[in-house]
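TL;DR need structure tokens for one chain.
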Amino acid sequence: MAHLLEGKNLYKTYREKAKVTQALSDVSFYLDRGEILGIVGESGSGKSTLLKAIAGMLKLDQGSVLYNGKDFTGMTPRQTGAFLQMIFQDANSSFDPRRVMKKSIMESGRGKKDEGRILELVSLVGLEEDLLSRKPSSLSGGQCQRMAIARAFYSDADILLCDEMTSALDVTTQAQVVELLQDLKKDGRLSAVFVSHDIALVSMLCDRIMVMKDGTCVEEGDTLTVIKHPCVDYTKELLESARRQSIQEISE
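>> reply
TL;DR here they are.
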């Protein structure tokens, strides 16, 4: 049986004047239905480039991306939007500032106009109905992030692509968003690729983890195995850094 989402031998090079950066080098991955794949690594590791390549936001040099076994490499975000939805780090700027939330959510449905479904989703993500009549500037970052999740589900896309979607939020709001995603996962309503620099956060939420460094995958496996028995020094360094951060937060 084909995986829900799969990437095979992906390459991407950025060229700027005399500088050449290998953003992706022979990266492969898969995601099955009802699963969350965590992609973790420091800034510049290639994780966000990988997510944008999946969504069709940039062109790959080599490799293929498949949805239910069918190659969709080279499709644009407008085309991939039928089955993929991206949730960005800065959710506020992903909404049209001139439109109220209800209209922005409805536009993701590609012609579908189901107000009942919108109300259901807004309730699902823990927001009040009256927020639908507001514009992005009048919502908090956490409220916009929840609206972005509701918008993604209204589109009926099979897969969410989450790019550092909690890093701009305060600790309390971050915990609320993670709890929401965990609840959706338990209900079997969520298949997602979750990108983050925070391996502790990824370990709480994801079924499997892929660790990236310098555009390559250096380690991949189920979450418990990677966390308990990391194979490479880089993964061990990320875990140690997360442990030190946790101790510091407790002491403060």
